[in-house]
Amino acid sequence: MTQPEGFVTPENAGKVCKLQRSIYGLKQASRSWNLRFNEAIQEFGFIRNEDEPCVYKKFSGSIVSFLILYVDDILIIGNGIPTLQSIKTWLSSCFSMKDLGEAAYILGVKIYRDRSRRLLGLSQSTYIDKVLKRFSMEESKRGFLLMRHGISLSKEMCPSMPQERERLSQIPYTSAIGSIMYAMICTRPDLLYALSMTSRYQANPGEGH
């Protein structure tokens, strides 16, 4: 990095500083952190998932533990409370961390439990309400059908005149598709067909789309 202002020595004015460790906010900081975390957690016996590099698993007899990493937020799941506690103790010895207790939200997904019925569920109702509000549709009528029967979308519905294209380009069609897609990937697979139909026309959506 460049020498800090006020600490430049005249005879070494043209030189730069070599960092001995990563500094938060630099381009390579997140990669350095990920490499450091990966090394530490594998020392404890976790195996990295090849298909999803932010997911780690550990098996010890009938005890199974999963660790999910999102930047510096960690979600730990398992069927053995003592094992989960030992994981947290190990992480505390390696990093400065805060235990936030039982998880309630992660990346906009609400985790709810009904222990009496032994149920565990995920919900994005709060996220979806925010999306509706963002696109001024919070007062819209709610229904059960994701796409009305008989609707047929085509390229012929795309605007052909420059004036019409300019007007419709002000509508955040692509942004809405992306926002709904996040819900589809996480908790609403039933949205797949409607999104697959509407996302085809993101480059040039018309009124019908």
How would you explain this protein's 3D organization?
- The chain is of the alpha+beta class and 209 residues long.
- It starts with 28 loop residues before the first helix and ends in an 11-residue tail after the last helix.
- The model has no long low-confidence stretch (mean pLDDT 87).
- It has helices spanning 29-43, 81-94, 125-134, 162-168, 173-186, 192-198; strands spanning 47-48, 55-60, 63-70, 73-78, 105-106, 109-114, 119-123.
- The protein is 32% helix and 17% strand.
- The strands form two sheets. Strands 1-2-3-4 form a four-stranded antiparallel sheet, with helices on one face. A three-stranded antiparallel sheet has the order 5-6-7.
- The protein is flat, with a radius of gyration of 25 Å.
Overall mean pLDDT stands at: 87
Radius of gyration: 25 Å
Strand order, largest beta sheet: 1-2-3-4
**Between the first and last Cα atoms, what is the distance in angstroms?**
50 Å
Overall shape: it is flat
Q: How many helical elements?
A: 6
Order of helices and strands: HEEEEHEEEHHHH
Organism: Hibiscus sabdariffa
Domain Reverse transcriptase Ty1/copia-type: 1-140
Pfam families: RVT_2 (PF07727)
InterPro entries: DNA/RNA_pol_sf, RVT_2
Keywords:
single chain; 209 residues; alpha+beta; four-stranded antiparallel sheet; three-stranded antiparallel sheet; 6 helices; DNA/RNA_pol_sf; Reverse transcriptase Ty1/copia-type domain-containing protein; RVT_2
